[in-house]
Amino acid sequence: MKRLKNLFELYINSSVHTGIAVVCFTLVTFLEFGIKIDHNLLGFIFFGTITSYNFVKYASVARLHHSSLAGNLKIIQVFSFFCFVALLWFTLKQDYKTLFASSILGMLTLLYATPVLRGHQNLRNIAGVKVFAIAITATGTGVLLPLLHQYDVSFQDKFLAIFQRILIHVVLMLPFEIRDLRFDDPSLKTIPQLLGVKNTKLFGVVLMVLAVSISFFRTNIGHHSLIGLSIFSIVVVLMLWASRIKQKPFYAAFWVEAAPIFWVLILVILNVIF
User: What are the residues whose beta carbons fall under 8 Å from the beta carbon of 96, sequence distance 6 or more?
Assistant: First the structure.
């Protein structure tokens, strides 16, 4: 049992779960727009997500405590290196537009993690910016990249899909923000710090209702996608409402992060049934 627990923790802490989640968000875009799935792009996104997330989480730790890294952290470091090698392989299979857009998203990730801004700050430490920086980066990866070459999709549908997904990502970040309320510096002015836990949940519900409502203005979305989004939204709202400051271990990191996996499964099941 202890071995299984250690493997599960390694699965979460190595960002594999996050990588799968981001790939699933991209798959949702492919399914919603009826686009042929680009497996090379999915590989590029999967390994890019793991590499960038592990850089954000562990770069400073590895630099400061390299000689005394914990066992799991050493494994994650080696694993991240091989993911970076795989990322380079899939990078060779992308065109210049994808690479240009990805480089901008990569710069946002760098600014989020590295204190290169004025006053030795990063985006994570600027008041009110953290959630939206993550939402924009995740949306760029999961929506913008697969739609870059879809010239038959109107600008309106692309814009609405991007705005809709940003709202969804903000809501999905709220359980993490509630969990971190005990640890975040008051100067960060996170949403739970500004609104309180209960009002943060209400705010998230309003955003999810708005996100679903946007679908009625999109010309490309089918009935299956709308039903799937509605079911997904209910699941997310229930997860948000169940969030607590003192959460169970991995509630946010596993269950909330698994939301896009549920979304893909819902869409696949609906397509099979109907």
Answer: none
Which pTM value belongs to this model?
A: 0.91
Cα–Cα distances in Å, from 69 out to 37, 58, 59, 62?
A: 39, 10, 12, 7
Which positions ≥6 away from 145 have C-beta within 8 Å? Answer: 26, 41, 45, 98, 101, 102
pLDDT of residue 186: 81
Cross-strand pairs, 117: 121
CB 132 within 8 A of CB 207: no
Mind listing the pLDDT tens digit for each residue in 179-205?
988 888 787 788 999 999 999 999 999
Q: Are 144 and 159 in contact (CB under 8 A)?
A: no
Buried b (16+ CB within 10 A) or exposed e, 195-218: eeeeebbebbbebbeebbebbeeb
